[in-house]
Amino acid sequence: MDSLNSLIDGFGTALTPINLMWAVIGVLLGTAIGVLPGIGPAMAVALLLPVTYGLEPTGAFIMFAGIYYGAMFGGSTTSILLNTPGESAAVVAAIEGNPMAKSGRGSQALAAAAVGHFAGGLIGTILLVALAPTIAELAVDIGAPDYFAIMVLAFIAVTSVLGSSRIRGLASLLIGLTIGLVGLDTMTGQQRLTFGSLQLSDGIDVVIVAVGLFAIGEALWVAAHLRRNAAAPIPVGRPWLDKSDLKRTWKPWLRGPFIGFPFGAIPAGGAEIPTFLSYVTEKRLSKNKNEFGKGAIEGVAGPESAASASAAGTLVSMLTLGLPTTAVAAVMLAAFQQYGIQPGPLLFEREPDLVWGLIASLFVGMVLLLALNLPLAPVWAKLLQIPRPYLYAGILFFAGVGAYAVGGEALDLVILLIIGLIGLGMRRYGLPVLPAVIGVILGPAAEQQLRRALQMSDGSVSGLVNTPFSVTIYLIIAVLLAWPLLRKKFQSRRNVSA
Amino acid sequence: MRLRTPLALLGAALLVFVGPPLLSAGDGSDTGTQIPGLRFMVPNTPGGGYDITARTAAKNAEDAGLTHNIEVFNLPGAGGTVGLARLVGEHGNGKLAMSMGLGVVGAVHSNKSEKTLADTTPIARLTEEQDIVVVSNDSPYKTIDDLLKAWKANPSKVTVGGGSSPGGPDHLAPMLMAQAAKIKPKNVNYIPFDGGGELLAAILGNQVGFGVSGVGEYLDQIKSGKLRLLAVTGPERVPGLDAPTLREARLDTEFTNWRGIVAPPGISDREREKLTALVEELHDSKEWQESLKKNGWNDAFMVGDDFGDFLKEQNERVDTVLKELGL
Amino acid sequence: MNSRQTPTPSAPRSDTRSWLRDHSELGVSVMLFALGVLVLTDALTMDVDIAQRGPVGPTTVPIVVGIGLLVIAALLAFDVMRGGQGEAEGGEDIDLSEPSDWRTVLLLGGVFLGFAVLIDPVGFPVSGTLLFWGAAYALGSRHPQRDPLIAAVLSVATYYIFNNLLGVPLPGGPLMGVL
């Protein structure tokens, strides 16, 4: 139990009053900045990097841990309340969280997200402590064919979010895939659908797409059908999760980390795909399927927990291999290097105090995040009580700020508006919005992994199934697809025997 | 009562027009190396190479008291050409500089960007870094000779992984190697990865034949024995690393990545001199020298026209290589 | 979506018109078809000169997506002709019993476009104020004193937080450097 002892020492470092103070400041700053539109965790950490320059390394990284978790939670807050996700990991939170907020269950949604972050972070960090070296070894064996198999699985999962009309759901998915095509082809550098514009050559960011389809599209759609007479303020409702909420959320909270953590740890994992997979899983398993899309609390709890655990997974590869799997990790890696510390295989031996102090402060940061934000949830939720015109004007305003702040390009605002108009049309004609966002996330990733796998095998299709992992995934897919048939057979046999 | 509306409008107008300039006032005086309101553009994302260079340089300049409050901001896109286009668009702006490097030279070509580095005012080259040729510790290639033999025998089966998109430094290096080894560029099977992290995993997992990356990126993995360093691409061996140069392996080529600073076109001579003086002072500061050491960057300081000529020469070289590749 | 009908309270003049209104969803089908053609044209006119390895090159996925769009456009048209209809999305603030108010949508879209056009020449604080005020006005807020002041304070505060505190540059306006 070597790592346990080291962890206890780590708590000794993290819980000194001064380091505790840095953690509190980090969580507060991170949340405050994460709430701002257009500033995701990576940007928040980069912006706050200079604040930590004056500190000694341990204090600085403890503060970083706070900023990271704080910024992730802050991103979910705006996603839930204003339908404007500030970063890709928070996109899924808007799908169920915003309808909840609109119907007066905003504080429950925020509380479910806060506890989800806590649970995900806690389980994720425990897995980090227990499994870091093992997982790091395994993670590097996951290659392009394996990723592609996971993408195929994810595409099959999309069918469960297509909505009532398959045709309209698929149309939405194809619109998303088309948006995902825009930009330079990652493998060869060919221009695709860029119409010669340099600004389009990096593609359209999924956050812009999500904010455009969700926030702008919604604001325009509301404008077309605004309830002029009965503008009763949105009720704040009871501030806490009640028994029935807890009954619905505890399983998603615990399931999320086991989807999020592995994805965080693998090199091309990130948080979008696990949050989406968690959402689909919760939808499948929920007893309240008909509530999905209208504000099902499971759809907030699971994905948020997965997102937080994936952040912990990110740290596994970064600390043990020096391998940054997300933008935040890349910024943190740069920060380590500022202090002359090189994360990687030798880090645990060279800087045990710092590493274990950092890991311990992750636990501390999560407790602080929960303690600070759970009481704040009803306060945040009151934000929605401001008059409708101001609320939607504010959403447009912050969506605009966010889109502009990322690159300082007015063209991004035009793109945002165009996507918003598409979102309006989709709402008018009953095309579900979610498949389009999923298409933007999955399309480019799947294509890249497919082509990378084929290139590695020099064009041979066998390159897609030459790893045990990918074969396993395809077998799972086969079982999933055959399941309805199998079940029917099974049932009829049982009926006969009965 | 009637007056209230115009008053409210007036108040609002006053606030939005006069507020921002007042908020930003007091940036300091324009003396010595001080350039009030200097902004430093990073044409890639936070955490990337140009970002780290820019943020380090800005912090060191502030710490050394050369100028205060340099604002570093990111404008990523198309390998740096979106930032370049913006910089060129800021004609005559003496309070803007951009962090850049060889990658931007390549991106100008592969993106067919209208604006090129010839449109900018070159300020200085700051650092350079050799590339390395690495494989995992259980790779069948024990030496660079093993690798070259296998590569020449079957170029398309021995895949090359790099952390940059086509046209970037990690792509150029293996292409130059292939050229020297008489391998047809079209036969090189180059696989781009999203930055050094994903590439590292692919090398460690033996998913690519070999990897090419900056020397600073994987020092620790090399020292801990997880990666086997086969060669360095520069003109001389890297102190502390036990690996031959390409020339020692009888490949007649060399490749060094570099980073520097450029300013918008059309700035006045005085503005140009001030920026140059600032980077010269920065270069001499102990803070910068310390940062070079910490980050494992080689000092490659070069200012003014020398840097301008260097840019031209690099531009031609990249152009030739990429043309041969048909990019 | 271009074929969206402007709702008039008066009865439709002819049968063709009312048929078109009932089947305005065909416009979505047309859009999807046009998008499919665009994607396919872009893919087929791409000059692929790099040695492609294996069956999947830079044009493969666009071709698949483009064909998918054409197929789904046809299926959707078929569905609409058979009487299928997309269900307009409901919501707390949405009153579907009222006819669509495209004037407000147009106004709101115009305000946002104005923001995009003005932000570089007149700066963020001014354009942001106009965005918030204009959007609030479009959505029915009529407080000639309160609205512009709220908008201005919000805009300048946002500018200050982003530009001065965080160092995310936003354009300050024509008086920057003059005062």
Automatic annotation (TrEMBL), chain A:
Q: Which UniProt keywords apply?
A: Membrane, Transmembrane, Transmembrane helix
Which species?
Answer: Streptomyces albipurpureus
Q: What is this protein called?
A: Tripartite tricarboxylate transporter permease
Query: PANTHER family annotated for this entry?
Result: TRICARBOXYLIC TRANSPORT PROTEIN (PTHR35342:SF5)
Please, which domain of life does this record's source organism belong to?
Bacteria
- InterPro entries reported for this sequence: DUF112_TM (IPR002823)
Q: Which residues form the DUF112 domain?
A: 20-437
Show the stretches that span the lipid bilayer. Answer: 20-49, 61-82, 109-132, 144-161, 167-184, 204-224, 311-333, 354-377, 389-422, 429-446, 466-486
Pfam families hit by this protein:
TctA
Q: Kindly indicate whether the keyword Transmembrane helix belongs to this entry.
A: yes
Automatic annotation (TrEMBL), chain B:
Q: Which Pfam families match?
A: TctC (PF03401)
The entry's protein name is Tripartite tricarboxylate transporter substrate binding protein
Protein family membership = Belongs to the UPF0065 (bug) family.
List the keywords (alphabetical): Signal
Signal peptide start and end residues: 1-25
Record CDD domains? PBP2_Bug_TTT
TrEMBL record, chain C:
Q: Which UniProt keywords apply?
A: Membrane, Transmembrane, Transmembrane helix
> Can you give the residue ranges of the DUF1468 domain?
28-171
- Pfam families the UniProt entry points to: TctB
Segments passing through the bilayer: 26-44, 56-78, 105-137, 149-170
Query: Can you tell me which residues the record assigns to a coiled coil?
Result: none
Q: What is this protein called?
A: Tripartite tricarboxylate transporter TctB family protein
State the species of origin: Streptomyces albipurpureus
State the organism's lineage: Bacteria, Bacillati, Actinomycetota, Actinomycetes, Kitasatosporales
